[in-house]
Amino acid sequence: MSHTEDGEPLLAVDNLRTVFHSDKEEIRAVDGVSFDIERGETLGIVGESGSGKSVTARSIMGLVDSPGEIREESSIRLDGRELTALSEKQYRSVRGGDIAMVFQDPLSSLNPVYTVGNQIIEALELHRDMEGAEAKSEAIELLRAVGIPDAARRVDEFPHEFSGGMRQRAVIAMALACDPDLLICDEPTTALDVTIQAQILDLLQEIQAKRDIGIMFITHDMGVIAEVADRVAVMYAGEVVEQAPVEELFANPHHPYTQGLLQSIPGRNPSTDRLPTIEGDVPTPHESASYCRFVSRCPKGFDECERVHPAHVEVGESADHTAACLLYPEDMPTDDTVTQHEENADQTGVEADEALSADDWPAERRKASEDTGPEDSDARADGGHGHSAGDTGGHSEGGGSDE
Amino acid sequence: MSESVVDTVSHQTGETLVDVQDLKTYYEDGGLLGSDPVKAVDGVNFEIARGETFGLVGESGCGKTTLGRTLIQLETATSGAVSFDGTDITELSGGDLKEWRRNAQMVFQDPESSLNDRMTVGEIIREPLDVHEQGTARERREKVRTLLDQVGLMPEHYYRYPHQFSGGQRQRIGIARALALEPEFVVLDEPVSALDVSVQAQILNLLEELQEEFGLTYLFIAHDLSVVRHICDRVGVMYLGNLMEVGPTEQLFQSPENPYTRALLSAIPEPDPTVQVDRITLPGSPPSPRDPPEGCPFATRCPVRIRPEDIDASDAVWDRIREFRDVIRERSRAEQSVGERLKERLGFDTALADSEEIVEEEFDDVTLPPDVQEHVEQAATYLSDGDPDAARAYLREVFGGQCDTETPQYYDVDDRQMSFCHRHAQEHVSPGEELRQRGYDTHDG
């Protein structure tokens, strides 16, 4: 989890915005997402379908095609190198070379008419200049490394001759062929049975320990997240709503969405008769977020949530635990937190973002939260003088019930 | 936990509604080649009490869906009996079968594909009523409106089309359709696996409410064990067409006896990062139901397989022997494929010459006792002679124990809990004890 020596994380995603255009409207699939991944670290990305997890992954891989578009204020840096500015040709060496991806359905990433071996060999030829017998023996070695028995024979088999778990192993072998620095896993075990899932998760952990790669692990399964992730980003309707180290997130979730998500897992507390639910569905974000996108489903929502877009603020014990919710910072009366979030939105807000070029964006989010320091105390001072006690009581009641 | 169990039990009368006896469902190819049938369900016994939710869990391909479909006669049983309220429904046909079908309905996994996109929601829910000619047109429409309300949809949804709904709402439509004929028994085939967690919880709650309101009996098929733990009264664990263990849910989850159940439960990632799971990671994947192992179906992956007494080898060596046997089994399977035979005929002698290589790959970092060494070499000889079947049979003979030869029986391991494993017999060490001896941490005690 530590920074690399030069202080630059392996992957730094900053204010990523990916939109899709249709005739009538634009869909803001990813809307201002920021996170870092260090070498040897696993960042878990969790959210429901439609929350923008996969589009985030595709944006990093440079796989967003028309009608999709990565807005120019977005920044994706790998080892300090800006990826959004690359041409398609330049991107090709990054994709598969520096970053590899494992998808949910292994069959869709394997070509049915080539043997598994040939597909790995192709990757080796493209990215590592290997050929012929050398490439083939490396392919066998890779299959062995991902735990495929009798690799020398299976290298000549076709994908349909592999079982589901074996296919996913083969895909992982392909991903490793180019010795990537970052591995993006998009629901890699969702299509697999639990006993096979256990094998694949073990394998990924072993690979990570051996090769010191960064892993971005996308899943909707909180159990898998708890097991693989070092840190977690919770996504909702295109935004990261909470980010924290994994133990911290499970022990002490702050955003009402994260709380709801954790409570609705069946079997977590077998004694409950009825499961707590989050009513409604994930909305599709069409317009810029000038409000909290979770408000329509939020059990703790109040009027201001409809007009103020929450910014990330530090919550909880650990410094890298942030949540985007008007209820926080917790030690502040709600009127003041709203004011603070409002000011935050004015500074870095969605209205202004058109005018800002990528260079104007602060490199680290942490800087943004430092900026809020002084306002923080201003707001608190304000709160000391005048605001209605009734309001605060109402809101903090909501805030308190999460204990 | 105890309260909720008592609660649900009070709805049950204890009277058996569905009684399944030695049920087998095989899929024949019907081709000229006359290949082996797929033994999807291979001899299953259990009962479901009235008002109960019986869960069926297992990995994909274990036959749980086929079993569910056979119970409501969507598949024809190859042998065995399914009595429903005392009537053997595998014998029903024609009008009797149609009449009985009103009693047993199904909710499917995928709400995207199980609803006809060209019909309105109202038509979809009304269709079973039309087919079974229930009441007048007006009464049917009225009934559909009531159903919409019961599953939490709005009356105005009647004239909308399925594509206008989200996954959770579509599953509500599927449930309304299943309930239209007021069945007693509903097979729920992975009803929430296609849904997000928060929506999943809504549907699970709905199913429980409907069960209480109409006194329904559920067969709940799922691979997600946490869902099963939440909603089921009793659970059956399936593997390769067989029921490995049956028991009351909490009891089974807290003290599983069968080695497969133990491995399966330990494989679920716990949604709590502070918990260190002592996982039993099973090697390999389930064998093909076309060619299941003789003896115990789980023998090829079992962590506590009974070993023959005349061979003395370390756990590590046994592990390698198991892997070696898997490879040989895989080869003998591959040999049967037409393409392989063609290749051989045409002189592409693909992989038969490298038997030494396999032996080396498998055993290079362990020291084999002389007798094991001898057996392995013998098998390798068969293999390089181009006869993997002989190699497989030989290995089975010398390294196979009781688990490879004899089909286990069911043992009562606890109150209403049965397990299908040789190790419960008097003369053997129990699965839990054996796991500990072989270095696994178990959750017992």
UniProtKB/TrEMBL annotation, chain A:
Region called Disordered, residue ranges: 331-403
Q: Which Gene3D superfamilies does the protein's record reference?
A: P-loop containing nucleotide triphosphate hydrolases
Biased-composition ranges, Gly residues, are 391-403
Q: Which SUPFAM superfamilies match?
A: P-loop containing nucleoside triphosphate hydrolases
Q: Which reaction does it catalyse?
A: Ni(2+)(out) + ATP + H2O = Ni(2+)(in) + ADP + phosphate + H(+)
| Family matches, as Pfam families | ABC_tran (PF00005), oligo_HPY (PF08352)
Which keywords does the record carry? Answer: ATP-binding, Cell membrane, Ion transport, Membrane, Nucleotide-binding, Translocase, Transport
Domain (ABC transporter): give its ranges. 11-262
Q: Does this UniProt record's set of keywords contain Cell inner membrane? A: no
Q: How does the record say this protein sits in the membrane?
A: Peripheral membrane protein
Which biological process terms from the Gene Ontology are attached to this UniProt entry? peptide transport
One cellular component GO annotation, for this chain's record?
A: plasma membrane
- Subcellular location as annotated: Cell membrane
Q: Answer whether the UniProt record assigns the keyword Cell membrane to this protein.
A: yes
Q: Name one GO molecular function term.
A: ATP binding
Q: What is its EC number?
A: 7.2.2.11
Under the subunit heading, UniProt states: The complex is composed of two ATP-binding proteins (NikD and NikE), two transmembrane proteins (NikB and NikC) and a solute-binding protein (NikA).
Name of the protein in question:
Nickel import system ATP-binding protein NikD
Which source organism does the UniProt entry give?
Answer: Haloarcula argentinensis
Automatic annotation (TrEMBL), chain B:
Against NCBIfam families, the record matches this protein to: oligo_HPY
**What keywords sit in the KW lines?**
ATP-binding, Nucleotide-binding, Transport
The protein's matches in Pfam families, at most eight in alphabetical order, are given as: ABC_tran (PF00005), oligo_HPY (PF08352)
Family according to the record: Belongs to the ABC transporter superfamily.
Specify whether Lipid metabolism is a keyword of the entry. no
Q: Which domain of life is it from?
A: Archaea
Q: Which InterPro entries match?
A: AAA+_ATPase, ABC_transp_ATP-bind, ABC_transporter-like_ATP-bd, ABC_transporter-like_CS, Oligopep_ABC_C, P-loop_NTPase
A Gene Ontology annotation in the biological process aspect, one of them, is: transmembrane transport
Name assigned to this protein: ABC transporter ATP-binding protein
Residue ranges annotated for the ABC transporter domain, each copy included: 18-265
> Molecular function (GO) terms listed?
ATP binding; ATP hydrolysis activity
